[in-house]
Amino acid sequence: MKAIVLVRGVAALCMGLGALAPLSHHVLADPAAPPLGPNIVVNGGFERGADPGEALAVQAGSPFVTGWTIFGNEVHVYGTAVQAEEGGRSVAMANDTTSITTGSGVSQVLTTKIGQQYQVSFYQAGNYNDHGPSTLRVQVGKNSHDYTFQEDARATYKNIEWAHRVFTYSAIAATTPITFTAFYTPGNDPLQLDNVQVRAILTSSTAPTAGVSIKLGAATAMAGGSETISVTATAAAAVTVVVDYPDGTQAVTQARTDGTGHYTLVLTLPAKVSGKVHVLVDSAGTIAQAGFTVS
Q1: Considering its fold, how many domains does the chain have in total?
Q2: Does the residue 206 lie in any domain?
Q3: Facing residues of 142 across strands?
């Protein structure tokens, strides 16, 4: 993967120049947002695992990326060398042929519910050195989608042009593999992947109702600070609060409302989290959702 050498060199020359530039996003597909369940992908932002520093080559079968199986010999975890879509890490993979059997990539097996529809969402980026088109193949169960993207001349290692991809999948089994493969990257230059999410699309029977509600203390919060989550349901009801962070980690709290039907959770936020946080409350199968931003 020749681009990794260039990335290391550029990053080294630019050390000490301050924070990386803001992200530049190309949102290519973003249907009207339905009510969604929590993200079922483990480590969808690739934030957990061995610290890659600037960048780390990971071999097939490597345990260095929590939750993911690595295959092929052209996979890197990008750290400080490249601007991630969210958090501080992303994955890069390469394959300079149109043969999927020689491609490199990442996969994991999801726990799904037969007949449940899921929204699959992720961000893809092309090569910012040669600006050539690259193709990513995503396979969910027996469904396969190819996505081609080309960075324009403005893209740099600190201003990645991330493309947002979204599609739906209906589960046909209790477990569903999801696989991302570099299908074609000319010159073996890498394409990038970040912020993978798979969320159940909630139906009218599981969408928010008057039976349970959430009130947040603030629409925005600081990393390392706190957020207050106030839940209202029936008196002495069992409630489960799922807090879904943008890096794929979750905090789950099980509790009961008091005699007036209220429960308050003061959530301590991780020091390094940033972006949109999704909150879901389940009380006897009735769902309420809310969200806030951490900066």
Answers
A1: 2
A2: no
A3: none
Instruction: List, for the chain, all residue ranges whose pLDDT scores fall below the cut of 70.
Output: 1-34, 128-131, 151-153, 155-159, 204-210
- State which of 201, 222, 257 marks the end of a domain: 201
Q: Give the integer Cα–Cα distance in Å for 53 and 62.
A: 17
Q: What residues form DSSP beta bridges with 24? A: 161
Strands (E), 171-219: 175-184, 191-201, 213-216
Q: Which residues pair with 170 in a beta bridge?
A: 117
Instruction: Give the C-alpha separation, 59 to 104, whole Å.
Output: 10
Q: How many helices (H) and strands (E) does the chain have?
A: 1, 21
State the pLDDT at residue 24.
37
Q: What is the pLDDT of residues 216-272, one digit of tens each?
A: 999 999 999 999 999 999 888 888 999 988 887 888 898 999 888 899 999 999 988
From its phi and psi, is residue 179 left (phi > 0), alpha (psi between -120 and 50) or beta?
beta
Domain CATH number, residue 105: 2.60.120.260
Instruction: HSE, CB side, 13 Å, CA atoms: give it for residue 183.
Output: 16
- Token representation of residue 256: 């009961």
Q: What is the span of the domain harbouring residue 39?
A: 3-201
